[in-house]
Design goal:
Belongs to the N(4)/N(6)-methyltransferase family. This protein is an all-alpha fold and 98 residues long. 49% of the residues lie in helices and 0% in strands.
Length: 98
């Protein structure tokens, strides 16, 4: 932590601007004004993330999410039955959880 932010706990340690692609960048007041005072500044990109151009249609993504949520709900219901300890449904419940 000290190597990144310096020894000053108030953040006043000197840092080096690493340029447009570096982690540490300096922005002038003028640059911030040009952005409409918006401080939501991002420039680093995680290369491991997919490009938005290659994503499936929103309907497909939503359907996959719904399927996963339904599976999770089914498993939670089976777990609740198992925790209640009903001997008649115990074997069936354990099978659902596998």
């Amino acid at each position: 932590m000290k190597s990144a932010y310096g020894d000053d706990p108030n953040g006043n340690s000197q840092r080096v601007d690493e340029g447009e692609s570096g982690r540490w960048r300096r922005f002038t007041r003028e640059e911030i004004s040009k952005r409409g005072e918006n401080l939501d500044i991002t420039w680093l990109r995680d290369e491991s993330l997919q490009s938005g151009d290659n994503l499936p249609e929103p309907e497909i993504i939503a359907a996959e999410i719904m399927t996963k949520l339904q599976t999770a709900m089914d498993e939670m219901e089976a777990l609740m039955l198992l925790l209640e300890g009903d001997p008649e449904t115990e074997a069936e419940t354990e099978a659902l959880l596998e």
